[in-house]
TrEMBL record:
Keyword DNA-binding: no
Matching Gene3D superfamilies: Leucine-rich Repeat Variant
Claim: Ubl conjugation is one of the keywords in the record: no
Protein name stated in the entry: Pumilio domain member 4
SUPFAM superfamilies found in the cross-reference section: ARM repeat (SSF48371)
Species for this entry: Helicostylum pulchrum
Organism ancestry: Eukaryota, Fungi, Fungi incertae sedis, Mucoromycota, Mucoromycotina
């Protein structure tokens, strides 16, 4: 499932779908996005569309989701 989410995150139009999910859904329902970002953090952060998604992840994350993402980045 992470591969499909990663494909959307890096896609020209798909990243907007992911960003809309981050904006509209609860943090609990968005956990699949945080899981995909954490599992592929370097790939997401170094991609032009993925970087936008990563920024929105931080905007809409709970404290525990932020900590998990930052821990992966370190």
């Amino acid at each position: 499932m992470h591969d499909q989410n990663l494909t959307l995150i890096k896609d020209l139009n798909g990243n907007h779908v992911i960003q809309k999910c981050l904006h509209r859904l609860s943090a609990e329902n968005n956990q699949f996005i945080y899981d995909a970002v954490c599992a592929n953090c370097i790939e997401v952060a170094s991609h032009k569309h993925g970087c936008c998604v990563l920024q929105r992840c931080f905007d809409h994350a709970t404290i525990s989701q932020k900590v998990a993402t930052i821990y992966i980045i370190k």
